[in-house]
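Blackboard transcription, Thursday session:
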Amino acid sequence: MRVALFITCIGDTVAPEVGRSTVAVLERLGHEVVFPPEQTCCGQMHINSGYRAEADALGERFLAVFDGCEVIVSPSSSCVGTMRELHPQLHGRLFELSELLVAKLGVSDVGASFPHRVVYHPTCHSLRVTKVGDAPLALLRAVGGLELVELPDARECCGFGGTFAIKNSETSTAMVVDKCAAIASTGASVVTAVDSSCLLQIGGRLQREGSSVRAMHLAEILAQTDSG
Amino acid sequence: MSGARGSVGRPFPMAAREALGDAQLRANLANATHTIREKRDRVVAEVADWQQLREAGAAIKADVLANLDAYLLEFEAAVTAAGGHVHWAPDAAAANQVVLDVARAHEVTELVKVKSLTTDEIGLNAALAAGGVHALETDLAELILQLDGDWSSHILVPAIHRNRTEIRDLFRATIGPPSLSDDPGELAEAARLYLRERFLSARMAVSGANFGVADSGTVCVVESEGNGRMCTTLPPVLVSILGIEKLVPTFSDLEVFLQLLPRSSTGERMNPYTSLWTGVTPGDGPQEFHVVLLDAGRTRVLADEVGRQALHCIRCSACLNVCPVYSRTGGHAYGSIYPGPIGAILTPQLYGIEHAPTLPFASSLCGACYEVCPVMIDIPSVLVDLRAKAVAAAAKPQERAAFRALSWIFGSRRRFAAAARLGRVGQWLLVREGRIMHLPPPLSGWTRSRDLRPLAGETFRDWWARRR
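(Written on the board underneath:)
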């Protein structure tokens, strides 16, 4: 299948390893990945911050850039969910990565190997907007050597929320401190999720606390194989 | 402090910071919200058609709002036919004046009150006090707050921020014997003894209402302690204040809401007391009955296509208990009698966005509120809509310039790629050992408590181009 990759602004500039991993997984499964080069940002940050006119323009731009792409994938549930909500015509065309693999392609074993104890944080948008369901868990359970442990109060928000993390810094911090304590209580060495933005928040806090737990996107785990 | 809330000027982030620093408050809140949350989840799971019930609740409320003019007139006619008096109050002052006039007509200087958010919203107690009438709160938590000059921090559990040692000390100093312990049974008994005398001697009562039934003129109050039943049956004069959105079309519509409300609010299958009364019944209950229909901003909310769904609210408080923000900051940070997610969309709409411009931003948009709302208010969408209104109303030239610049950069891939290159070069000043630990304001809001990942050495698109 030919799949167009929407990398997202954060995925392009801050966490490019997530995009590289997404490409690796899809190509390993025999799919062709294309990258429409005009793409930039979907405008979610502008909408959620109250700048609707700017967001609308970016949304229209997104639709034009991906016009003609039958299947679009993005390793960001938040951007996917927002774009589908705003542009219902994207339903059935735009997928979050785990959703594409499990629901659309019917694959849960992608041939990955990752012998570590891992805890999964279901991000709010993946749960309640994009509704990826158990797809990420199905993928993680099929990873060779991976020990999946349960996260207490998993459905609690990590406190990212875009500009919320800055405008309501103290509240956001109180939330991520609790999230990191829950992660630490599991004894996992890796925390994973399907949103790089939430992982910036969780990973940034873990690093500040001097924790040895690593924050990794699901795509990165799925890209790991025995042969490295 | 019983005045109307909602126009308090303190920005949410500032008020929240103070609340977050109070370890006792944090512990009380975490404990209480998690307990109610679990109870609610358990009893909701028992109802096989819960989603259909929510849909029915939302549909009935949408119908009421779409035909409110007709339902209000129907309700007025039914109340009048049953021997009640209906008053139309365009604002808080008009509603308060009705109550004061009734009290004066009966030469009443003290009246008893059922717990009512609407009367808190309009600052009834303060208005009555200014007119020489004392309004005694008879709900246990409201009584505690009134005795202490404090105010509600939760829709359902107004004193959620207080613990029983504090309450023992307060009762010892006010209504209870000096030997009072902090045993909950003893504390409740002290309040009971104090209140019972007042119920029996009161000549007037004031209530809010959970529902008003348009076709019968029936008013409904749902409660747990029995104080509401005392107030609505013992005193000879009763005044009930209803926000105009509180109507349901028919008596049988109550079936939907009386299932949704207790399970969502207290996590009970059924609340202990449901009082329903229709006008005046000779020889039974109050012999003079007034209804005040309150607008106070509601018609303005009704005119807003996105925001009007806030008027669906049945004040269950499920959204407060699941909210990751509320459960850490508590209600006072919201500066309104309506706190939490529902308060963040009701307060700016009822009082005007300029009076509460920071509330729509007091959310991570996690969506937990929408998931539990028994009448399916899409709170995150209303918050986002209100954010646009807040931005339009406020002059924030720097933020506006930053977002415009960002959208200009995102408007072209060349500008985007160039900005990424520029940022990569510029950030060398800030990056230490692969992370950014200090940034200037407002971005310091991030780096005060979290490291920030720097821009990557090679963007994805550069890698992609190199690879092909």
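Lecturer's comment: Chain B has two domains: 12-298, 397-467.
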